[in-house]
Amino acid sequence: MTRVLVTGASGFLAMHVVKQLVDSREYIVRGTVRSLTNEKKVKPLKELSSELELVEADLTKKESWIDAVKDCTYVIHVASPFPAATPRDEMEVIGPAVDGTKNVLEACAKTKGGVKRVVLTSSCAAVYGGRAGEDHLFNEEDWASEEESIPYEKSKLMAERAAWELVKNLPGNRYVTVSVCLWWDDMAKILDEEFRPLGYNVPTRVAPTFLLKITSWFDPTVKMIIPVLNKEVRLDNKKIKEDFGFQFRDEKTTILDMGYSLIDSGFIKATPKYQEMKTQQSTASN
Ligand SMILES: NC(=O)c1ccc[n+]([C@@H]2O[C@H](COP(=O)([O-])OP(=O)(O)OC[C@H]3O[C@@H](n4cnc5c(N)ncnc54)[C@H](OP(=O)(O)O)[C@@H]3O)[C@@H](O)[C@H]2O)c1
Prior knowledge:
Blueprint: E1 2-6, H1 12-24, E2 27-33, H2 39-48, E3 53-56, H3 64-69, E4 74-77, H4 91-110, E5 117-120, H5 125-128, E6 137-138, H6 151-166, H7 184-195, H8 209-216, H9 220-225, E7 234-235, H10 238-244, H11 251-264, H12 272-285
Helix pairs in contact: 4-6, 7-11
Family: Belongs to the NAD(P)-dependent epimerase/dehydratase family. Dihydroflavonol-4-reductase subfamily.
Protein name: NAD-dependent epimerase/dehydratase domain-containing protein
Keywords: Oxidoreductase
């Protein structure tokens, strides 16, 4: 069986990738984590499969990628800093993103036998970063504005650019993988409709812009959203649908799945009504 490496396997997206690969039973799956002794990160991965190979690698440590990539036919590079707040120094995010991408790709090029294909998880931030609000349907031809981007967007833009620069003589493709862009209050309304009858209070009122701007002075998580506040972004996902027949899950299902997952995994407390519904469901399925 061919071996696939998934970088940053403990992350939100990468763990889904690992799960799909493991469930397919078609590959030997190797995942990287920063530390094998970090039980919080490693345990959920081990629970996915006892056969999953886990190795340590850090984006900033070039040498760690040589062993990680060894004997792999495919590499899915997902690891990258994904900050929830504006960092004090943008290089905290940009440095590992760019150096990590180069380190992974260079290790792929050096590995004996050669890696056949690399999938790089960039971001639509590398497509529309610093350009939200433009009256434009963004697609794979578009690139973020380096000058106007926030640190995260810049990190994705620069990492992807670095990747293309390294593989400039090789064939490759860029795909937008966004199904639809929604406003936060649209998402809140979908959650509210489903979860209010189960005893949850999902706030659906839109916070006034001036209040968010004031809050952003002392809250770096709010500061991060100010550049895109009230600005619409439209993305065209035609290419991936045409090339792969890719079908996106509808947004309502995705948002509700997230809600249920947050409750079932204990991030949000289960209300008595929610527990009652679960009991009824399990009785019905027995
Ligand atoms: N989630 C989205 O909606 C979304 C959208 C567009 C693009 N993306 C891209 O998808 C990728 C994963 O996003 P995510 O949502 O899954 O984020 P995440 O849960 O924060 O996962 C990020 C992963 O990168 C790893 N990582 C960060 N810095 C590292 C370093 N210095 N060395 C090694 N590993 C490092 C993290 O390891 P630790 O667990 O040890 O911190 C984690 O496994 C990122 O490239 C992100 O830009 C995500």
